[in-house]
């Protein structure tokens, strides 16, 4: 399936142990970010590092240091 076939966000479910989830939420709160913003940034950076480009607009990027 091609990227052009999607015009909306999709859900990704991730299992994480409770201690790591709480730690993630704490760090995110300290940085005024949501866990979703952080996960989207991680995915975007990982995909880009492997040479894949996506059509992610500026409004979909998490704020903060690169």
Describe this structure in words.
The chain is mainly α and 66 residues long. It has one domain (3-60). The protein contains 2 helices and no strands. The chain is elongated and about 35 Å long. The N and C termini lie far apart (29 Å). Mean pLDDT is 82; it is low at 58-63.
Task: Give descriptors for this structure.
0% strand, 2 helices, mainly alpha, 66 residues, elongated
Number of domains: 1
Shape: elongated
Quaternary status of these chains? single chain
Mean pLDDT: 82
* Helix content percent band: 40-55%
Count of alpha and pi helical runs: 2
End-to-end separation in angstroms reads: 29 Å
What composes the largest sheet?
A: none
The ordered H/E elements are HH
Low-confidence stretches: 58-63
Structural class: mainly alpha
Radius of gyration: 14 Å
By DSSP, the count of extended strands is 0
Report strand %: under 5%
Brief synopsis:
The chain is mainly α.
Task: Present the secondary structure layout.
Elements: H1 18-30, H2 35-49
